[in-house]
Specification:
Strand order of the largest sheet: 8-7-6-9-10-11
Shape: globular
Radius of gyration: 21 Å
Length: 358
Amino acid sequence: MCGIAMIERTPRHILLVRPSALGDVCRTVPLAASLQRAFPDSRIDWLVQDSFAGAIAAHPGVHRVIPFARKELGRLMRRGHVRRVLRWTRSLADQPYDLAIDAQGLLRSAFFTWSSRAPRRVGYGNAPEGAPIFYNIRPRVDCSLHAVDRMLALLDAIGVEPVRDMRLYTSAESRARAAALCPPGCVVIAPTSRWASKRWPIERFRSLVVQLLAASDTCVAVVGGPGEEEQCRPLLDLAGPTDRVIDLVGKTSVEVLMAVIESSRLVVANDSAALHMAVGFDRPIVALYGPTDVSRVGPYQREADVIQHRLPGESVNHKDDTQVRLMERISVEEVLAACRRRILPSSEGTVSARQAGW
């Protein structure tokens, strides 16, 4: 990384740019926490994809959420309505930003950063797609760092002390809606992923849930996004015979999903946004990983909660569907054992397995 470019005077108005993806948005909150601590009297706005705005709306370090209507603006671009898109980007300069930080590091996010007209624009000097041309403070950050540490290095480069505060926040309204959908203390199962190679076989999730139900009196909430119902079908079929399996797939907003996870006793998930939400609420987790570099994009500072069977020297590429074999190496028995360890206190604790219902 290059030398520190110290902020000589306190910025009054800061723009943080991190539009997507949802899991990445959730683990970007340490930047808001760090900026809030360094500049307690400054206003911090966050530009984020509109569908993910709920993830940060309740964060005390964020003064205003600026929604980026990705689908709508993309549709306008495809139809040739360039002026309307440029009108939106020009509106970013309506606020007198002193400092803008691009935590995503792609051409689009860099352009948004530049559009703010902030006199100090911070971004990765080694970002792809030509993004660095839009910054005037360009630290080169080691790409092998964990994603969270890599983003925090942008602040370190301008003399802001990083605060590794991963806490997420929910509103009272979201918590009330979550409570109406499922009781607190459920085990949350997040079995979906955009990439086939990141999915633990759904039949194994089903087997896991059957054994959890048989061994305890816990309830299980299955979560996922709209359109992922069929991906979860073998698991959701359990919701018919028992009211202890709650189908929430496609039935929650981002805010309500966060509140469900916040009140959970355990989250079992593939590499997904739900997992990073669980980290933000400091919930017990069992993280199922396949062809992904855990040291870079795993649950932050929770590597001990990851189950992964990557062979020494084995390359990983989550976009290669054939690498689903890495997920197939994870057995139901080891996941069930991990769930037991997290739900039950250790042998040194005071609660026995019988008392806990196992």
